[in-house]
Amino acid sequence: MSDRQVIGSHAGARRGIALRDVAVAALIALLLAALFGRIMGYELRRDEFMFVPPAVLLEDHALYSDLFYNHVPYSAWLFRAMHLALPWMGLLAVARLTIFLAWLLLLGSAAWIGWRLTRSAVMALFGPVSFISAEVLLGQAGMAATNNLLPLPFALLGLGLLAISLAERDLSFTRLFAAGVMLSIAAGMKASAIAFIPAVAIGCFLLPRRMDAADRARKLALPVALGGIVGALPLIWLAVTQTDLFFAHIAAYHAGPHIAFWQDNAASEPGLALGSSDKLMLAWSVWMVGAPLLALFVAVLSWAMMRRDPARPDDSNSALLIVAAATATAALLAFVPTPGFPQYYIGPLVGLPLLAALGWRALSLDAHRGLAIAVRVAMALMLVIALPRLGLGLNELRHPDKFTTAKVQRGADLLRQILSDSGLDGAGPVATLSPIYPLAAGLEIYPEFAAGPFAYRIAPYTDAELRPLYAMAGADDLPALFEASPPSAIMTGFDPGLEAPFEDYARANGYTPQDLPAITDRYGSARLWLSPRAAAATEQTGDTQ
């Protein structure tokens, strides 16, 4: 072959690589656009009635003492910070944008960790594709503005930074400290993420075996522990200074009234997983389908093909054992909450691309070719499976005015306009179990209903010891609550059973009903009951004219 032909072939190869890189970049941009559209267009979920309101209410109220909140606080503080940073955006839009940014952190972290551990573009893509294709994450768990997705990027970073330090035999204090901080932040976003911590804590004292115990404690366990303490300081402060209040919300609620409510109302939620067998079937439907199953296949295949390259001595096996133990612990502890919901089983998903990357790292260079083919096929199948849902996200982008976030804000603006026209703006709180709408309108609500239905519905199941620790009102408390501070309006229409006492009060006290179809979500259409003061204000205005 002549020199000119050699140069031409090299140039052609470079053009081919450049075209491939452009195609991959375009695919990534398309997937991110689809993800954004799906998040913004995803139907409003009842869980958001509890997670979103603190973004506004924390300005004047304290979490736990003034507001019922049955989770650890970092997610509430994050939504509040984003609301302060973007005050011109609608309330739900900011919260959903926060979820999208969490997705970017998750996908970007997965890509960086995959590349750092393997130096393989295929493995760098594998983690992000496995997440963005997971059916459970394209549902409520990853689309709604709740705390379900928020722990995942921090758990991934914590495990990933630790794995990098072990695999590269570079026990950087800064990196290990950051790993501890990330794991604690994950647990501060959602208490169930604490499941990753025991395996890490124990593993740092036992592995790698080539180090003596004193060195492991000083060089590995200590920086991770210090980072963990720093990341958990706000939680430690709350646990020490507000012990009864804090644990009443994040522990006693889930162990007592929450279970009692669902035992009595299981028929209202088809497929509710109350027993162990039901939980197992639910977990199976999350883990053993689609992208999670393919990710597990790749991870197991990488272990089965292990033929360590003697030219690359490292501690990948130690990292693999710790990550595998953390993943298994997260899977086991997912069965603890009762009842089970799909979002409880997403934690172990963060471990699968890490395990695959560590398995890849432990392979000989010759084995990479065969595994790379399997990984490419797995990623292609993942994207095919996810295509319908992601396609819907792209379709949502065609009409941003039809985003759920836009519809909620328009409904909220109309609500404010109606109260203003009726002379009721500022005349009292709006009573509703759907607090996002009045809060998005800048209207006052009752703090007792800041968690939507979640505190209200457990009132009959809350014992006398817990009741004083919850800022809550049940159906029997409505007359006294409304007598002390009469509502300017009552909004119902989304849960006939729970809202019946609100409507009974409205009828008994002369409130005027009107349908409000502009406020419609998957749970129903709003019915607005205006205070009798609206009629009086209208008559007074007519007299002056």
TrEMBL record:
Transmembrane segments: 21-41, 91-115, 121-138, 179-208, 220-240, 284-306, 318-338, 344-363, 370-392
Name of this chain's protein: Glycosyltransferase RgtA/B/C/D-like domain-containing protein
Record's keyword terms, sorted: Membrane, Transmembrane, Transmembrane helix
